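Memo to structure team: turn this sequence into structure tokens by end of day. - J.P.
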Amino acid sequence: MARTPSNMLELGTTAPYFSLLNPLTNDHVTLTDAAGERGTVIMFLCNHCPFVKHVNDEIVRIANDYRVLGFGFIAISSNDVENYPEDSPWLMRKTARKYNYSFPYLYDESQQVAKDYDAACTPDFYLFDTELKLIYRGQLDDSRPGNGIPVNGRDLREALDNVFNNRKQNELQKPSLGCGIKWKPEN
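Reply from structure team:
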């Protein structure tokens, strides 16, 4: 299990726009379609990564807890499905249903969105404010498969609570750690 850290996109960066396929509905969803009134969480996930599987239930809890407070959530899978067929759009649909995702799980076939966000791993989390400026990026919490630390979403929850309560974000933001995004071979 490779351990790849986040690239930690610069705070204040404007969220790159996208329009991506939602395999569950066969519709395209844009950044603005799914953005929240108070802020927007963009998550890079995939189906097969043990790090994502480890936190999937907590991701769903966080989305359900904070969507009602005005936050939008969007998950994106950017992996090369030719070499990693377990991340195919068909299986994305199955994953979204299995975990009862309450947010769109979008397919980044060209991998351009992952490049635009400088995403490096799954899971990787980005929180944008109401103006779609980056205010948090990095890990969900300190838990990793096998490290014995319970999954509680502490870091992302704290960032969301800070927005909700008009508090300043913590300056110490830890990178996420997970499976590296499976990039397509260069032509």
